[in-house]
Amino acid sequence: MSFLHENFTARKAALETEVGFPVSISGLTGPLRIFQRIKGHRHSIDDATTAWYALQKAPSAPACLDLGSGVGTVGLIVLWGLGENASLTCVEAQEVSYGLLRANVACNNLDSRVEAIHGDIRELHLPRKFPLITGSPPYFPIEGGTLPSDTQKAHARFELRGHVGNYAEAAKRHLTPDGLFVFCFPFQQKARCIELVHATGFRIVTIRDVFPRRDRPALFSLYSARLDWAGPIEEEPAFIVSEPDGAYTPEMIAMQRSRNFGPDGTNEI
Description:
two-stranded antiparallel ribbon, alpha/beta, 8 helices, Rossmann fold
């Protein structure tokens, strides 16, 4: 058992009493762990691939700003991948998720490298700019479905505090002139996504569609965007998570290995 995992197990009971709900401890990347609500919004493939895509596109960025961080999944994966000299700034508005974010940063012994900000990205005006900005925006307009009764799930899935264009506006205010903005959005809303992001002054550089299985439709797309880009959009080869029988594809296994996960998707804790 790693010493970081011991931090989490030692903190778990007190945290559950503090926040008023049960939490689990999950492997995230390398030695890092996260607390998640057992019945709340959970870390998923869109977070994992967004972080992986950011590291593919900007592997040596010295600092990252993660917008709408939730409990820290995208940002912490990116931070670990960038190496021990990198820093991370996380911004999260929802009280429940922000509390877990703070606990995750502390128990991973990352307080000296991570600044966690409790606030709305639409009102974010930091005094510095970043070479890499990431985000996993909510996927659906408010009128696009029935809002979950659970507040954390509702804010993670529906645009209660802005859409992908608002994320792009916040990124534009904080990106270095040659920096990169990496994010994900539903495949079915690709045209809407491009329109909203381009309206802010960004230009999409690359798009990579993600298929949960080779025999099923694409689920979401990964994007990289720049403010200084004047070229065409490059549609990259699809990222396919698994074969029709459910077995991971070689590319998915390689992505998992980059996080110290085994070929069956497990990370021993």
